[in-house]
Amino acid sequence: MSQSVLSRRRPSRGRRVLLALAATLGAGLVAAPPASADDFYTPPADTSGAPGTVLRSEPSVFYLDPLKALRAPADVTRVMYTSANAQGPTVVTGTILKPKAAWFGAGERPVVAYAVGTQGMADRCAPSKQLAAGTEYEGAFIKGLLARGYTVAVTDYEGLGTPGVHPYVDPRSLGRNVLDSVRAAQRLGIVTSTAPVLVSGYSEGGNAAAGALELASSYAPELKLKGGYAGAVPADLSRVAPKLDGSPYAAFLGYAVAALDDAEPQLRIRDLLNERGQQFLDRVQDSCLIDGVASFAFTQTSTLTKDGRPIADYLSRPDIAAALAERRLGTVRPTVPSLVAHSALDDVVDYAQDRDMARSWCSQGAKVRFQTLVTPTHVGGAVAGFPSAFAFLEGRVAGTPFVSTCGTF
Question: Per the UniProt record, which residue ranges are transmembrane (predicted)?
Fold first, then answer.
């Protein structure tokens, strides 16, 4: 068997431990399932319609484990709907989950537009496929939302399942995908047009949720948005990228580069890469979270470029800097209460740039609560943020007063 184009030496002890962990996880809760054999994800010839138009739907299932022994007590619908990105209309798939139990809270049953974190770039990574296979690693949080009686709309995001390249951490696309998942749920009659709407997400999902919060008033003003939680937001890619280079999560940087290369061909990013870099960019687009982390951990991007400079060195090039600036969050204030949480000990997403996003929202008059967590690692921050996120969402549903912390962080 030929050696990997990315590593021709024996992996270091740290890399071997990471690969072993990834292999263990890959066999369990977060393994990506095989690609679906059906053609549900192939868009029909006619994809016209306003954003949120349902193109097709079918019954689905949410398994809580990869053995498919436990099934969530919810009516589950897989859906294909129209959405948009920065360039124009697109088609996206997703899953709508409605608890079987009656809603006993005040008013109508709310709907939470849930934005998942990094899944990968390959079509087999689509959350709708992983929910049905019992392998969605964010299933625990989604289960918690269902247990609280909320309808949950989970977008697959553009390019996951459906044709095209996934626009990784591009809030202009992901935010629209999130909002349009609620419109699709309304058009299916699963939720009403007057139901309270909330958004929630962490990591890439935090980017998507923050994007939805910034876009909602102009893009989907008819939605009854009550608030949003955005955790560990990669708000400024120019400040997030350097931390990923050479780290266990180098695949995430590859995802961002591949997405930028696809969306902005005039930047000619591939021209910066050597043969090894070209292969890296092709391979990373055919990976999901676990196999991506395992395959590309500790990759130094200086080994992928023609001139031996790391990718981060190119981010200040005027045309690339301008493209990243268009994707930066913090320039438009949310019009609803927003909770932003981030661990100061996050090893993946830079803490300071997320805090700066929240500060920028505050400076524009937004109502923001910024919570600094001290739990080590990116994953640890996600778990530590769960209680605050659930409490925040419950408070918005109940209509309790929201205390902004602007000016204190």
Answer: none
